[in-house]
Amino acid sequence: MAKETYTDEPSLERLVDLAKEGQKDALEELVRGIQGRIYNLALRTLFLPADAEDASQEILIKVITHLADFKRESRFTTWVFRIATNHLLTTHKCRAEKRGFSFERAEEGIEAALSMSSSENVEACENALVVEEVRLACLQGMLLCLSREIRLAFILGVVFEVTSVEGSQILNITQETFRQRLSRGRKQIRKFMTKRCSLVNPENPCACAKLIPHEIKIKMLDPENLRFANHRCHARETGAAVAQMHELDELRRVAVLFRSHPDYAAPESFVESIKKLAESGRLEMLNGR
Q1: Helix (H, G, I), strand (E, B) or coil at 111
Q2: Where does residue 281 fall: left (phi above 0), alpha (psi -120 to 50 degrees), or beta otherwise?
């Protein structure tokens, strides 16, 4: 898996200028340059790829139809993230959240899984891809245990590594509030992972494979239809850090685990949808205005 190459900031802003002038090729390239960021933010916020695709499509349309509002008062990607997070906070419903994700329920699930017979679904447990699915879904699921406000601050601060200045601009809050939300998210996830995850605390037994029968039983896992392990993606260059996890403290181990997640590839359908929208004449900025 090759690492995804995001278009750099000056190039994106140049594409914005060209798109405003009515150049449809520039608009398509602009969508390609930002769709990965938007999709990965949406997927980590909403858990289910289908929900993330719907939200990303809606966010992209908002970004494109409001390009005239971008006044360079911040970086373009900061402006895009602000539109995306506002949409994710106020508009999009999350089907996964209806299942009542919480750290307490997660602990109960682990206890139930560890108490199940080791002979159940042995074939699935021995499948490395299914085990990887559980690992990826576990990290994604932990994000659902956070309130959405804290979740977005955690994703922005830990996964995307934005500064408190950028985070405050994106979420339209003070820098201190952003730092507080990020700190709360780190503490909640660190507490859970220190107690349950062997990668953060080597004294814990690894439960990923043992969780498989339980996850199948509660219909959170379908070995024939993997959400994350089979998702087209771009690997992050964090292999060395993951290999040296034992040298890091618990807080940094948590950060490395979340940053080591792959950058999930956004569906190519996003570009086609925006292209059709542009050709329909519904985008005023591309109609010679």
Answers
A1: helix
A2: left
